[in-house]
Amino acid sequence: MIPFKHTRNGALTIKGDVIILNANTATKSDYPLILKIWEASVRKTHHFLKESDLLFYKEIIPQALDSVNLIVWKNQNHKVVGFSGIDKDELVMLFLDPQFIGQGYGREILSTLVRKYDIKRIDVNSQNVQAKRFYLKNNFKIDSEDPVDGFGKPYPITHLIRSI
After folding, report:
1. Which of 41, 87, 122, 134 is the most core-located residue (most Cβ within 10 A)?
2. How far, in whole angstroms, is CA 95 from its chain's centroid?
3. End-to-end CA distance of the chain
4. Could you tell me how far CA 36 lies from the centroid of its own chain?
5. Which PROSITE patterns does the entry link to (predicted)?
6. In total, how many domains does the chain have?
7. What local confidence, expressed as pLDDT, does residue 159 receive?
8. Domain ranges, residue 105
9. 86-96, pLDDT tens digit by residue?
10. Tens digits of per-residue pLDDT, 128-154?
């Protein structure tokens, strides 16, 4: 288990073998950077999205950010690694700056969120094979699938539940 503690400024510090992360509750002033990370991450991992649909989602993301417990994750160099959004026991969003994908940050963030917030559910774009594989590898299993997303767009959604 990775220890974590609250620092003076309310940040959560996670110390693993190599990765140290600080978790801070996001504010509206973080939104421009969060949106930049969201777009860069989606462009890197969601090759199946049409450009017009990406722009559609980009327009509605700010409202989605307002409706979740939004956390900004920074590394030991105070560089923003990514962000996550939680609603009760569901991880609604987890996006990493592309330069940090594949380095263990996602695993550390997910592990911490599961422990701290008892995350039990995640929805993932079925066509985002890398993300789907990531969650399956990290103790989630397929519960059900929908042929379209919540907006009726032709992007199947896989509903995952924690298997442990």
Report:
1. 122
2. 4
3. 15
4. 14
5. GNAT
6. 1
7. 98
8. 4-162
9. 999 999 999 99
10. 999 999 999 999 999 999 999 999 999
